[in-house]
Amino acid sequence: MAQHKTKKSTTKADKMNFLNNKAATTTETTWAALQDSAEDLDHDPNSAPHDEPNKSEGLTKIYIEQTIENLSAKLIQTWKVTADQIRKTANELQALQQQVESMETHMADYEDRARRNNLRLHGILETVLPNDLPVFVTGLLHAYAPDIPADMLLVDRLHRVPKPRHLPDSTPRNVLIRTHYYHIKDPQNAR
């Protein structure tokens, strides 16, 4: 059993050495490539030869400057794209708000037009039953506007509306009617 434990620890040690060697090789290769690129950038026939510490400082400085420039360019591009998206979204939002306002105006107009044939009659007693209400209302309209022909006194629909809570129980509910012809609402102009 002792031999078996030794094999496992040897295997772990071998793996660690392999990984350390691999990392060192990769670091050396990367460092050598950076030095070569720095030498290419620093190669100026008029400049004096640099000693080894200055080369690594120059390499680090160049690397940092390039990294900062790249990051700046990426940030500027990202900001431009984001600003364009915000502008586009704001324009779309403004267009939608205008559409909503236009639709609200049209809806209010349609509702007003739909209600313009409506009449609200007050004081019709509750003793008039719902089945008798159409005949009663037609007779009331004929009595109110005798000059309007009977075939023009058409009522599309009628019903009693709920009573407001502040009114006493003895008060009859109002009757809402919709006349077929708008001019019935104003008997002065019906002729």
UniProtKB/TrEMBL annotation:
Positions with biased composition (Low complexity): 23-33
Keywords for the protein's UniProt record, in alphabetical order: Coiled coil
Domain of life of the organism encoding this protein: Eukaryota
Residue ranges, compositional bias (Basic and acidic residues): 43-55
Biased composition (Basic residues): 1-10
Segments forming a coiled coil: 86-113
Transmembrane stretches, start-end: none
Region Disordered: start-end pairs: 1-57
InterPro entries, per database record: Transposase_22
The name this protein goes by in its record: Uncharacterized protein
Organism: Pelobates cultripes
